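Worked example 3 (structure in, sequence out).
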């Protein structure tokens, strides 16, 4: 077979050549980009200017840690403390250590000309400094607008104008076998493009709370995180998030967060600072996984269907309960769209907000039921949830001094130095109280406190359970509600 014939067959496999010289695509239902075939150079040229390199810096910090004492070392440094450990440290000692400065890198995608950039939460989490470098080597400092650990997405912003952007495509229209490119900065190799196909959709890896990954065999490595998955039309269809590997390097498959999830997360972070997550308030698993697990136990299962979402538990008062769902039911459709597995259900709900109505179709005792229900947030209502700032506490704090640590024999804490009107005063917390733990998390810095308050304010139970003590050594516990 000569080269000309081989090339014609390759073109025929990708599209149908028209008399005008363009190609009608069976994948997209329209004319493909110029070039006479699916030309990935077109997609690369569109994507490269809009994909950025993100440098992460976490500065060195001094931390106090507790460690097991060495009795022989203690004897020579403090012979009176050797017998019976009169300082009451229980065989431990506190030491200050200097954490090393941490630097890492990842990728991001510019989605608006005024400087909004989408990346992964794990690329920016805990950063003290973020530096963004464009494909043309322009450099900007970035600030975090909002993050969502549940989907592993983050929105950051640089002060730029007329920046290159990547148009956002509809990941729902992706088809298995379709060509895509992954654009990012693996191993600090800036502006790297790899190509592959969509290997699967709605894949779960149980890495995040909400996930419905696009699986691709386009090579994704360390540093690609937050970069772009792009279709042959030069549209963003996913944010590259992780690779599956037993070695830590690419070994066949990468995974991207679809734009159907990304769009909603970005919109919420811009408007509210936190994601408005709509819940059915159920737990379950893929039907085929449930059936396989039961068969492994020697049980016969007949649910009347072999795919869908098996409902294992329905929480009282939630949207699922109001829809009439009970344990043992199988969800098959949301708003008429088929859901074959939990990832597809999560993706369908990820585009909704509390207060939205959805039609849930499910099998109850093998009989089809269809109910319209209003989705709720984690707190069981339809209110907009905004993450609280420290202002809601109505108090001022400072880290305790070395003298206070020694006097009270504690390793860390925050002292309440002023109490105004707010949640702290209403709960009975007074000036001088030293906070040690909140919701079973040790509190060492103001950043720790801010994170705990933020997380608690959008949780199912928006309450701070505070443990600490007064300067006299008297221990005290408080429950501080963050909402009415």
């Amino acid at each position: 077979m000569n080269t000309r014939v081989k090339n014609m067959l390759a073109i025929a496999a990708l599209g149908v050549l028209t008399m005008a010289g363009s190609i009608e695509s069976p994948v997209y239902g329209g004319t493909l980009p110029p070039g006479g075939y699916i030309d990935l150079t077109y997609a690369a040229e569109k994507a490269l200017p809009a994909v950025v390199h993100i440098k992460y810096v976490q500065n060195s910090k001094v931390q106090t840690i507790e460690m097991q004492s060495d009795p022989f070392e203690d004897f020579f440094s403090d012979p009176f403390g050797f017998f019976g450990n009169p300082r009451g440290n229980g065989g431990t000692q506190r030491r200050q250590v200097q954490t090393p400065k941490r630097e890492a890198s990842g990728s991001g995608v510019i989605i608006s000309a005024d400087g909004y950039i989408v990346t992964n939460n794990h690329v920016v989490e805990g950063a003290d400094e973020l530096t963004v470098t464009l494909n043309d080597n322009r450099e900007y400092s970035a600030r975090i607008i909002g993050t969502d650990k549940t989907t592993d997405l983050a929105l950051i912003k640089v002060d730029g104008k007329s920046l290159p952007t990547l148009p956002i495509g509809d990941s729902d229209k992706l088809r298995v076998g379709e060509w895509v490119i992954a654009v990012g900065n693996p191993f600090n190799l800036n502006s790297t493009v790899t190509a592959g196909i969509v290997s699967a959709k709605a894949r779960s890896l149980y890495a995040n709370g909400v996930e419905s990954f696009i699986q691709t065999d386009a090579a994704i490595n360390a540093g690609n995180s937050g970069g772009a998955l792009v279709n042959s039309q030069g549209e963003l269809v996913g944010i590259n998030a992780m690779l599956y590997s037993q070695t830590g390097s690419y070994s066949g498959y990468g995974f991207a967060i679809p734009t159907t999830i990304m769009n909603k997360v970005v919109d919420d972070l811009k408007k509210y600072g936190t994601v408005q997550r709509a819940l059915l308030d159920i737990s379950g698993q893929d039907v085929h996984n449930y059936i396989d697990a039961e068969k492994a136990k020697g049980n016969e299962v007949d649910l009347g269907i072999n795919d869908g979402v098996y409902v294992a538990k329905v929480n009282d008062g939630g949207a699922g309960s109001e829809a009439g769902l009970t344990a043992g039911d199988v969800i098959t459709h949301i708003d008429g769209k088929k859901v074959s597995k939990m990832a597809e259900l999560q993706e369908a709900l990820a585009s909704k907000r509390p207060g939205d109505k959805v039609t849930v179709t499910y099998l109850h005792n093998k009989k089809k039921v269809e109910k319209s229900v209003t989705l709720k947030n984690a707190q069981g209502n339809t209110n907009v949830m905004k993450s609280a700032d420290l202002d809601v506490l109505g108090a001022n704090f400072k880290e305790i001094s070395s003298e206070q640590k020694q006097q009270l024999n504690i390793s860390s804490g925050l002292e309440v130095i002023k109490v105004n009107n707010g949640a702290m005063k209403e709960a009975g917390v007074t000036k001088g109280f030293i906070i040690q733990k909140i919701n079973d998390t040790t509190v060492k810095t103001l950043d720790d406190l801010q994170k705990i308050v933020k997380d608690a304010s959008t949780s199912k139970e928006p309450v701070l359970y505070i443990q600490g003590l007064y300067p006299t050594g008297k221990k005290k516990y408080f429950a501080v509600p963050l909402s009415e």
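Notes: The chain is about 20% helix and 35% strand. The two ends are 77 Å apart (CA to CA).
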